[in-house]
Amino acid sequence: MSIRLAEGESDQNFVRNLIRLAREAGELWAHSWPPHQVEGEIQDAELWILESDSGPDSSARRPAGFCFLRPPGSSWEITLVAIEPSARRRGGFFHLISELRQGVVSDRERSALSSILTLEVRQDNLTARRAYENAGFVVRGHRKSYFHDGQDAVLYELK
Ligand SMILES: CC(C)(COP(=O)(O)OP(=O)(O)OC[C@H]1O[C@@H](n2cnc3c(N)ncnc32)[C@H](O)[C@@H]1OP(=O)(O)O)[C@@H](O)C(=O)NCCC(=O)NCCS
């Protein structure tokens, strides 16, 4: 697996489609990430693509997941991450985070403060929370009743 910045319309369509599928599967809350918000994030955030190695020929690589990354204010923030269902539980998220930290976070921004990577997630998204904790994220705080249905948001950071 490897990561790269998105390169054009086909990567963007991969992302739009994966978000739509995740919403339909109930993995993202119904009101999260409506199309206009997705389009805004495609414009405003960095879009990183995780590719799977489906063979020795690199042209056989195909997108397996993505994250939106906001460059630092006081931290780098992942605003959304998703891995394709067939590619999950193979360390894809873990790999994405490791490469981001080595290649993006540490090379491009060297101050200790902004090398922190943050994200937030619904308290009841236990699959995502396990993946985050497995990748080394620790809970930094909670936002009470942050979502419209009353769920808290859990804030994570990785130093
Ligand atoms: C959350 C999400 C990104 C995690 O992606 P992932 O690539 O499956 O994550 P990882 O493989 O790195 O880790 C997840 C689990 O796989 C396990 N795993 C990692 N490599 C593995 C392997 N080779 N074999 C078996 N299990 C493995 C990890 O230990 C972890 O297991 P655990 O949950 O039992 O602790 C993915 O489930 C997803 O896209 N969910 C829908 C969208 C979503 O909820 N996004 C977050 C909202 S912002």
Structural features:
seven-stranded mixed β-sheet, binds coenzyme A, 7 strands, 159 residues, alpha+beta, single chain, 4 helices, globular, Aminopeptidase, 33% helix
Short description:
This protein has four helices and seven strands; from the N terminus they run E-H-H-E-E-E-H-E-H-E-E. The chain has helices at 9-24, 35-44, 92-108, 126-134; strands at 2-5, 46-52, 62-70, 76-83, 117-122, 138-143, 153-158.
Helix and strand topology:
Elements: E1 2-5, H1 9-24, H2 35-44, E2 46-52, E3 62-70, E4 76-83, H3 92-108, E5 117-122, H4 126-134, E6 138-143, E7 153-158
Parallel strand pairs: 4-5
Antiparallel strand pairs: 1-2, 2-3, 3-4, 5-7, 6-7
Bound molecules: coenzyme A.
Coenzyme A binds at residues 22, 27, 80-83, 88-94, 121, 125, 127-128, 130-131, 134.
Structural notes for this entry:
This protein has 159 residues and is of the alpha+beta class. The chain has one domain (2-158): 3-Layer(aba) Sandwich (Aminopeptidase). It has four helices and seven strands, in the order E-H-H-E-E-E-H-E-H-E-E. A seven-stranded mixed β-sheet has the order 1-2-3-4-5-7-6, with helices on both faces. A hairpin with a 5-residue loop joins strand 3 and strand 4. The chain is globular and about 50 Å long. The structure holds coenzyme A (COA). Coenzyme A (COA) is lined by residues 22, 27, 80-83, 88-94, 121, 125, 127-128, 130-131, 134.
